[in-house]
């Protein structure tokens, strides 16, 4: 039997956890994932045993700024902005370092505004 699984809410909102809690992966002997990656040319694919996405082979950590909101005119500096995103890492060491750097840099960025 082949089971095709499309993960909802992959970037944040707990899609994988909800799938696991629902029991979708019970009685599965093997699972294969597919992810688009900017370093792999269109029409080509790569594979390996184990993890290959963030931290698994391409990078030790990843920061994504997915939202930058502020103001309502293109020629006026807004009084405030909201910056939001995600960060993730393969190892606890990388995650701790990334968390530390975000906590160190964020106040400095705010003070420059």
UniProtKB/TrEMBL annotation:
PANTHER family: IAA-AMINO ACID HYDROLASE ILR1-LIKE 1, PEPTIDASE M20 FAMILY MEMBER. It comes from the Eukaryota. Signal peptide: none annotated. GO terms for biological process: auxin metabolic process. InterPro entries: Amidohydrolase, Bact_exopeptidase_dim_dom, Peptidase_M20. It comes from Dillenia turbinata. GO terms for cellular component: endoplasmic reticulum. One of its GO terms (molecular function) is IAA-Ala conjugate hydrolase activity. This is Peptidase M20.
């Amino acid at each position: 039997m082949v089971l095709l699984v499309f993960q909802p809410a992959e970037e944040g909102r707990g899609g994988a956890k909800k799938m696991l809690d629902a029991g979708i992966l019970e009685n599965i002997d093997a699972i294969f994932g597919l992810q688009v990656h900017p370093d792999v040319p269109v029409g080509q694919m790569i594979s390996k045993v184990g993890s290959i996405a963030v931290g698994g082979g391409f990078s030790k950590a990843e920061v994504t700024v997915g939202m930058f909101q502020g103001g309502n005119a293109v020629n006026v500096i807004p009084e405030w902005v909201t910056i939001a995103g995600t960060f993730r890492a393969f190892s606890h060491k990388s995650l701790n370092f990334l968390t530390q750097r975000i906590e160190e840099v964020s106040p400095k960025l705010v003070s420059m505004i």
